[in-house]
Amino acid sequence: QVRLVQSGGGSVQAGGSLRLSCAASGFPFSTYSLAWFRQTPGNQREAVAGIISDGTTRYEDSVKGRFTISKDNTKNTLYLQMNSLKPEDTAMYYCAADPLITSRNYPLRPFGYWGQGTQVTVSS
């Protein structure tokens, strides 16, 4: 059974940092594509950062240079380091995994497995 359990997040002032973690189980972690999405009320979920199964990393333009996605295959854990946070980064953040995501179809192809979500709030 695929499980993605998120931790981290919380509230921080603008300019601060947070790290999100996503502990995975039930699937071959190192072979799946992984990503972080975020969603605000009334808006669609958007891809923030992804690590494709071929090792490629992808970032949404507004987070480039501030956010870093990484994973530890020995711990089956995905991370999102968020620096220089802005109020507009406030959202519910979700981790996601899927075996069929490639560099060609990311982020348009839907991910099949999702974490429970964690709130990030950045105050000005």
Helix content estimate:
under 10%
Mean pLDDT: 97
Total of DSSP H or I helical runs spanning 4+ residues: 0
Strand content: over 45%
Major sheet details? 7 strands, mixed
Backbone structural class? mainly beta
Distance between the termini: 41 Å
What series of H and E elements makes up the topology? EEEEEEEEEEE
- The shape is globular
CA-atom Rg in angstroms: 13 Å
Jot down its keywords.
124 residues, mainly beta, 7-stranded mixed β-sheet, 4-stranded antiparallel β-sheet
Helices and strands in order, then pairings?
Layout: E1 3-8, E2 10-13, E3 18-25, E4 33-39, E5 46-51, E6 57-59, E7 67-72, E8 77-82, E9 91-98, E10 113-114, E11 118-123
Parallel strand pairs: 2-11
Antiparallel strand pairs: 1-3, 3-8, 4-5, 4-9, 5-6, 7-8, 9-10, 9-11
Describe this structure in words.
This protein has 124 residues and is mostly beta strands. The protein is 0% helix and 50% strand.
TL;DR?
This protein is mainly β and 124 residues long. The chain contains no helices and eleven strands. The protein has strands spanning 3-8, 10-13, 18-25, 33-39, 46-51, 57-59, 67-72, 77-82, 91-98, 113-114, 118-123.
